[in-house]
Amino acid sequence: MSMPANLTREDGATIAYHRTAGSSPGIVFLVGFGSNMTGTKALFLEDYCRRRGRAYVRFDYFGHGASSGDAELGTIGRWAQDALAVLDSLTEGPQVLVGSSMGGWIMLLAALARPSRIHALVGIAAAPDFTEDLILPRLDPEQQQQLRDTGAVTLPSEYDPAGYTHRLAFFEDGRRRLVMRQPIDLACPVRLLHGMSDTSVPFQTSLALAERLATRDVVVTLIRDGDHRLSRDADLERLGRTLDELLGIGD
Fold it and tell me: Cα–Cα distances in Å, from 75 out to 25, 68, 173?
C-alpha cells in the first residue's frame, strides 16, 4: 500500500490522507472514533471511486492512524476542523460525505459549515451527539467519580483491548457541538444505513436524525442482522448501490 500524503494545518499538526483523482461529485470518507483510513469501508470506497471514475479522499483525524497528535487530546470540534481542512484543501466541486459512526456527527458539522459544497450525505451507523447521549448516560457512579476527580475516564471497548480514555474536555466540547437538539438545516439528500443488531449505536439514532433533518430527501435503511461496522460484503454492496443512486449512476 502506498504511503499517505500529509496536509499540514496552521498549528503544525499533520493530517495523513490518500487522494484519488476523478470527476465530481467526489466522495470523502469520515472514519469513526479510534478507526483509521485503512479500514474495510475506506478501502472499499477507494475501489468504488476508481471503478466509477470519481474523486475520493480518505484521511485520518488528529491522533488517529498516520496523522500526528494524541487521540486523547482530540475533540469533536478538532476533528470537524480536520474534515473542513480536507474538504477545503483537497477537494473541488460538490462532494458526497460518507460518515461512519462518529464520522456521521463530523459529517453533519462539516455539511452545516459548508452547505454549498455538499452533494449528499451518507451515514453508516451515524452517531451524532454520542458523547452526551451514549457515553455519559452509561457511566456508572464509580466512573462518574473518576471523571470528576481525575478529569478523565477509561472505558472498555470491544474494538481496543486497552479501552478508550476520554477526557473531561472531550465531553465539554461535545456538548458545544450537539446537533440533535434542534432542526438540522440541511437541504441535500441524506441516506442513513444502520444495523438493527448494532450494540454500540442504537438504530433509533438514525430514525431520530431523519426526523430532525430539514431536507425531505431522507431515506433510512435498517439492516436486521447488521452490526455496528456494516463491513460485510452485502453491507458494502448496499453502500455501493446507495452511492450509485445518489450519483445518478445506472439511471
Answer: 29, 14, 6
Cell digits of residue 215: 431536507
- Catalytic residue, chosen from 194, 198, 200, 206, is 198
d(CA 227, CA 194): 8
- The answer to whether 119 is a known catalytic residue is no
- The per-residue pLDDT for range 101-126, each reduced to its tens digit, is 999 999 999 999 999 999 999 999 99
Global model pTM greater than 0.85:
yes
Residues 235 and 133: their CA atoms lie apart, in Å, by 26
Instruction: Confirm whether 228 is a catalytic residue.
Output: yes
Q: Which of 1-5, 18-22, 59-63, 87-91 has the lowest mean pLDDT?
A: 1-5
Is the Cα torsion angle 70, 76, 78, 79 positive or negative in sign?
A: positive
